[in-house]
Amino acid sequence: MYDIHLMYRRYRSYIFYLLSIYVIGWAATEYQPVFLGLILGTSVSLYHLWVMVRKNVQFGRALQENRKIRSLGTASRFATAGIATLITLKFPEMFHLVSLVIGIMTIYIVIMIDYVIQQLRA
């Protein structure tokens, strides 16, 4: 499971770099709702990554020990995305809905870009 932890650290650092850029954009531009939506969505995306890695490690251990695993965390990921959407709909003057959705999808974009980079290096 070393590889998954290495990938997790790499993805997490990319997400933190993006979050820092979003915070600078929030502070320096007049598009504050857009950047707040990106910040909220990317934070949810980082949580989704953490849940996926944690459940993947638990799944690997369960396979080694011939146990069953209860779930892979899909319901909790849907719930956090739903809560973030409800927050955005409750405060539309603070958060931009489209940027929230883009932020939630950020980790998947980061994973694809990292995969291409790793394949080019190999």
UniProtKB/TrEMBL annotation:
One of its GO terms (cellular component) is plasma membrane. InterPro entries: ATP_synth_I, ATP_synth_I_Bacilli. It is a multi-pass membrane protein. The keyword Cell membrane applies. Keywords: Cell membrane, Membrane, Transmembrane, Transmembrane helix. The keyword Membrane applies. It comes from the Bacteria. It is found in: Cell membrane. This is ATP synthase subunit I.
